[in-house]
Design brief:
The complex is a heterodimer of chains A (about 375) and B (about 325).
Chain A (H helix, E strand, L loop, with lengths): L6 H17 L11 H16 L18 H13 L8 H14 L2 H12 L5 E4 L15 E5 L4 E8 L10 E7 L10 E7 L5 E6 L8 E12 L10 H13 L7 H15 L5 H29 L7 H24 L8 H9 L9 H12 L6
Parallel strand pairs in A: 1-4
Antiparallel strand pairs in A: 2-3, 3-7, 4-5, 6-7
Helix pairs in contact in A: 1-3, 3-7, 4-5, 4-6, 7-8, 7-9, 8-9, 9-10, 9-11
Chain B lengths: L7 H17 L2 H8 L5 H10 L17 H14 L5 H7 L13 E3 L6 E3 L6 E4 L2 E4 L2 E5 L8 E4 L4 E4 L5 H36 L1 E2 L2 E2 L4 H30 L4 H26 L11 H12 L5 H12 L6
Parallel strand pairs in B: 1-3
Antiparallel strand pairs in B: 2-6, 3-4, 4-7, 5-6, 8-9
The chains are: A alpha+beta (about 375), B alpha+beta (about 325).
Chain lengths: ~375, ~325
């Protein structure tokens, strides 16, 4: 057990803090899940990239800093503490990139990663379909082999695609073996959304922002180089991404410790009673517990002692925590809570936490079955 | 380099203790403690293992280990439901000149408390700044009968604590709070183990009841609670071991999280057992009742949250 920061880690943190202090917009940007807000966020993403803060844990050759996971955690902590903008590139950088590093060919990595880091290619995730949500393996979008053209023809529909209306590319699962069932015979494809036959329609989420899209594929041709990780191996490849989505890479602890700091500042500006103080203490503890759990999880994984179901524990905790933090803010605000503002906006967003990245019902099954060993049926 | 986890020597100690307790602390022993048995053979085993003096200096026969080993050992002791004032004895021995071989068993009279848990089986009672002989005046029965209390009769002082040891006493109190948190998580782990085994076996509607989501989900949620409390216990142990000035804050966090999480586990596990768990013939209640008691001992979750609130509302930083 050693929680002291090395000199190199401290220097890394200090450099990040100094840069963020100098560069984070003084006035928060409008929501990145709206058309004009998204454009402003892209400018921010490009600023981050030029200063090599966009993808700190990646190799320097792709625009990163080869940061260790500890340095990455420190960067995230500083990022959220500084109140820096949401990362509209996150589905590419945090969900697709780990999969590309694990399964991509050299050509795919060289072609895609630098453009992703520079926010030139903007990736959305194409998993859910109208009939396939929690039961992802029931998806019916198809990939038909086209031997003559040397590639695949995609057809079907994806939906609830986050920021799909603003992105340039989609990574998704398609059924490549028509005789297959469930999680067999699926292939992971990388698809440009300007390919002929693709139709994208944005639609508003619960908070009214156009953060969702439906994406239709009508006989869309993609070459063999659009396959990531092997034909019919899509399920295994995709599961590598779910690990990232549920656990660490999507929700770093700095996010919640920063929210709690803002919550405490809010409480100091309001009259709060003992009941609210109890909940503030709980909020502080929970955010801190999430940080400590994450440190433990990372340490265990590095020592090869990770446990099955651990990323589901993580996801259950942060998603419920995020709601509690925002509920507490709204309770402190009282009648002012109904006003449009960062807390009411954040509250609405927090409600999606237990739904996306695998519903919490699915996560509880995973904890019960894989960590505790209860029978599937 | 940053590493968050118990050191290898703490893990080895825990594994060694597990072996000892597997033979020395069966549930039959826990049940004997319910009948007032002071469990001499168990305490002899603990003594020869070195557990009572785990934190005491090697010069006085202790193991000279730190709080990380302390919580590792007490979590394991909690799993076995070790009866008697183990947490208090381990916590206060380094502040006193008493034998560390298991023959001295220390109960603690909490501020403003009339009754003292374990007064019947302890050899000494610690009060603020003095140590008295444990002579309980009659048994005050507790829900967990292994914790039978006594209202202390006026007892002659055995030792007046010297002023220069006041800091040691403050530290002992923090250690006892932290140790109780660790013990609670061990009790919780035992109840989950019992429950997992039971719901895999128990058949209703033609299938194991553990296959139902209505059973799985509350259990998964309860385990989330203990899984996130344990790193807080480790963190507080590290803080005490390294003299972190925020040690008291971290101990409060550990105890508040462990109290709530382990209580939740006891509720869910009892429910998952159905009527099978609602009897003193089955072992679950031994661990549930200790949980109920310890969740409120050494500061309730509410008291610790209030202490945390006072700190964090004054200064906005970790």
């Amino acid at each position: 057990m050693d929680l002291t920061e090395t000199a190199a880690e401290a220097a890394f943190r200090a450099e990040a803090r100094a840069w963020l202090t100098a560069n984070v917009p003084a006035v928060p940007l409008p929501s990145g899940d709206t058309r004009e807000g998204f454009a402003m966020h892209l400018e921010w993403e490009r600023l981050l990239f030029e200063a090599r803060w966009a993808v700190v844990s990646w190799p320097a050759a792709y625009g990163g800093r080869d940061a260790s996971v500890w340095e990455w955690l420190a960067f995230e902590e500083e990022y959220y503490r500084a109140g820096a903008p949401q990362r509209v590139t996150q589905n590419g950088i945090f969900l697709l990139a780990p999969t590309l590093f694990a399964f991509g060919t050299q050509e795919q990595q060289d072609a895609l990663l630098p453009r992703m880091a520079a926010a030139q290619d903007l990736w959305c995730q194409g998993w859910s379909e109208p009939g396939a949500g929690s039961d992802l393996a029931s998806l019916t979008s198809r990939a038909d082999r086209d031997e003559t053209a040397g590639g695949w023809r995609l057809s079907g529909q994806k939906t609830w695609t986050t920021r799909g209306a603003f992105c340039t590319h989609l990574f998704g699962l398609f059924r490549s073996d028509p005789a297959s069932e469930r999680h067999h015979g699926l292939t992971y494809f990388l698809v440009p959304l300007d390919a002929p036959g693709v139709t994208v329609r944005g639609f508003p989420r619960l908070d009214g922002d156009e953060g969702f899209a439906e994406v239709w594929f009508d006989d869309v041709f993609v070459p063999d180089s659009a396959v990531l990780g092997g034909v019919d191996a899509g399920w295994q490849v995709a599961m590598a991404t779910t690990g990232s989505e549920r656990g660490l890479t999507l929700r770093s602890p700095g996010r919640y410790t920063a929210t709690v700091d803002r919550l405490l500042a809010l409480a100091r500006d309001h009259e709060v009673d003992a009941a609210i103080e109890q909940r503030l203490a709980q909020a502080w503890m929970d955010a801190e517990a999430y940080r400590l759990f994450t440190l433990r999880q990372v340490s265990a994984e590095q020592a090869g002692r990770g446990r099955p179901g651990e990323s589901s524990l993580n996801k259950l905790f942060w998603s419920e925590l995020d709601i509690r933090l925002h509920e507490l803010a709204l309770d402190i605000l009282g009648p002012a809570a109904e006003l449009e503002g960062p807390w009411s906006k954040g509250f609405q967003f927090s409600l999606s936490g237990p739904i996306y990245a695998g519903t919490n019902e699915v996560q509880r099954n995973i904890v019960a079955e894989r960590l505790l060993g209860l029978p599937r049926r | 380099m940053t590493h968050f986890g118990l050191p290898d020597d703490a893990l080895a100690l825990r594994d060694g203790l597990r072996e000892v307790l597997t033979t020395a602390c069966s549930t039959a022993v826990v049940r004997a403690a319910w009948d007032g048995d002071p469990c001499e053979p168990l305490w002899k085993s603990l003594g020869s293992f070195g557990l009572p003096g785990l934190l005491a200096a090697e010069a006085v026969g202790g193991l000279g280990l730190d709080e990380l080993s302390f919580v590792a050992a007490l979590e394991e002791a909690g799993w076995h439901g070790v009866p008697g004032p183990l947490v208090e004895t381990m916590s206060y021995l380094p502040a006193l000149d008493l034998p560390v071989d298991g023959s001295a068993r220390l109960a603690v009279q909490r501020p403003a408390a009339v009754n003292v848990a374990y007064a019947q089986v302890a050899t000494h009672v610690i009060r603020p700044y003095e140590v008295v002989a444990a002579r309980g005046a009659g048994v005050v029965q507790t829900v967990d009968r292994s914790r039978a209390m006594g209202a202390l009769a006026p007892a002659p002082t055995m030792t007046i604590v010297a002023k220069e040891r006041y800091d040691d006493f403050a530290r002992a109190s923090l250690r006892a709070t932290l140790g109780t948190a660790a013990f609670l998580l061990g009790l919780a782990r035992r109840q989950v183990d019992l429950t997992v085994a039971y719901v895999k076996e128990r058949q209703q509607f033609g299938v194991a009841v553990g296959s139902f989501q209505a059973v799985k989900h509350p259990l998964a949620d309860a385990v989330v609670g203990t899984e996130f409390a344990w790193p807080a216990v480790m963190r507080a142990a590290y803080s005490l071991a390294t003299g972190d000035p925020a040690g008291s804050l971290h101990v409060s966090m550990a105890k508040a999280l462990a109290s709530d999480a382990s209580y939740r586990v006891s509720r869910v596990c009892l429910q998952a057992h159905g009527a099978m768990g609602y009897t003193v013939e089955y072992d679950l209640h031994l661990f549930a009742k200790r949980t109920w008691a310890l969740a409120n001992e050494w500061g309730t979750a509410r008291e610790h949250r209030a202490a945390i609130a006072r700190t964090i509302l004054e200064r906005n930083e970790r």
